[in-house]
Design a protein that fits this description.
402 residues, alpha/beta, Aspartate Aminotransferase, domain 1, Aspartate Aminotransferase, domain 2, 42% helix, binds pyridoxal-5'-phosphate
């Protein structure tokens, strides 16, 4: 097809027509005049982009991948490798870097929980894996957790056919343990809430020889948490790849005992007759996840922290310069453990509510996403591109003063 005709046809497509511009539509497009710039796909789609002052939220698409992870992703797409072979090699490398027995890349922390649970139940028996979650009469399919650790993400256990038993005390847990108990589950950031803390929990697991799993999805930084909980004695530990680790949002890590990680993989792709077949991670993501972890472990964590502190200080100071505004800096103990800001104000003096401020931030240009409830505007900076804190600071001040 002649170039001119091709362009004519393309311009009939609504998206591309808008992109090529008037010159092309007039039929004057020459090779030289084809824009060199990368296509602005989000713009073509009419999608809103925003500064992320909120944090690693799934609905806000988590994080931006590190450059190094993007490079790995691009590299991986140039050639084929066998899925099991890249998972084997990357798993070994991850386990070395993190200092645990074994590791595998999953489709998010949620899938790490499902696959890990399936592995505990099937053991190294592929035929059993194929019967999860519908015919588990010969498997230990009960999982015990503390009521205080109940969270929506625990649905991932039930996806693997687990019957969840809720307890509150050590006594209750020991009483609930029976022949069908397959696993004890722990939600890391709710450690302060539950009556059974790490040590006692792991002691019970040991005593009854029941595998333990810890959901640490959002729990780096600090970097040490990557190895803290396997070192502590948890048999399986789950992380999100697309939160603090800044790998692909659809990835996660399952870390822990070699036999259990191997068993979990019996329910993972490419094996088709399994509960995990829909949790595919492609070679690009597997490699990008490994490089994201490598980058994360090797980072200057003090410098990262100092950057976040200075960004929070700038936004906090700018907001506090408005009469009637109060700021509170804080760092969550576990999960999203980064410098954070609660901004509140005397609503008799400043006649706008925090939800209205968030809406004004969202609908302005550039759009800004922040968090908080009815009383506060909540900000973190760790998922921003450096420099964006200045825009956030001045926009908050503008909104509060206008
Ligand atoms: C985010 C999160 C998950 C789910 O992680 P994905 O990587 O999005 O699958 C599970 N548990 C907790 C505690 C989380 O914060």
């Amino acid at each position: 097809m002649k170039r001119r005709n091709l362009i004519k046809r393309l311009s009939a497509l609504p998206l591309v027509g808008g992109m090529i511009g008037t010159e092309a539509l007039a039929g004057n497009l020459t090779r030289e005049s084809i824009p060199e710039a990368r296509r602005d796909y989000y713009k073509e789609l009419g999608l809103r982009t925003y500064i992320n002052a909120a944090g690693t939220y799934t609905f806000l698409t988590g994080c931006l991948m590190r450059e190094e992870a993007i490079d790995a992703y691009r590299y991986a797409t140039n050639q084929y490798v066998a899925l099991d072979e890249i998972q084997d090699k990357v798993g070994e490398r991850l386990a070395q870097m993190i200092g645990c027995e074994a590791a595998t890349v999953t489709a998010g922390a949620f899938s790490a929980i499902t696959l890990g649970t399936a592995g505990v139940m099937s053991g190294l028996d592929q035929e059993k894996a194929a019967r999860i979650p519908f015919d588990m009469s010969d498997m230990k399919n009960e999982v015990i957790m503390q009521k205080a650790h109940a969270v929506g993400y625990a649905h991932a256990l039930q996806n693997a056919g687990a019957k969840v038993i809720y307890v509150e005390t050590r006594k209750g847990m020991e009483k609930a343990i029976n022949k069908k108990t397959g696993m004890l589950w722990f939600l890391n950031y709710h450690n302060p809430e539950g009556q059974i803390k790490y040590e006692e929990f792991l002691e019970i697991g040991k005593k009854y020889e029941i595998p333990t799993m810890n959901d640490c999805a959002a729990d780096v930084p600090p970097v040490e948490n990557l190895w803290k909980y396997t070192d502590m004695g948890f048999d399986l530990v789950c992380f999100s790849g697309g939160k603090g680790l800044r790998g692909p949002q659809s990835c996660g890590l399952l870390l822990g005992r070699k036999d259990l990680v191997a068993a979990a993989r019996l329910s993972a792709p490419p094996r088709g007759d399994t509960v995990g077949r829909g949790m595919k991670v492609n070679k690009e993501e597997v490699l990008a996840m490994m490089i994201a972890v490598e980058n994360y472990i090797g980072r200057d964590h003090k410098a990262d922290w100092a950057l976040w502190e200075s960004q929070i200080k700038l936004i906090g100071d700018t907001a506090a310069s408005v009469d009637g505004v109060t700021i509170e800096k804080h760092v969550p103990e576990i999960a999203n453990h980064v410098p954070s800001l609660h901004i509140s104000w005397d609503q008799n003096k400043i006649k706008i509510t925090p939800p209205e401020v968030r809406e004004a931030l969202r609908s302005g240009h550039p759009s800004i996403e922040a968090m908080g409830g009815k009383e506060t505007l909540d900000i973190t900076t760790w998922m921003m591109n450096p420099g964006e804190e200045r825009i956030v600071a001045s926009r908050i001040k503008d909104i509060l003063t206008s």
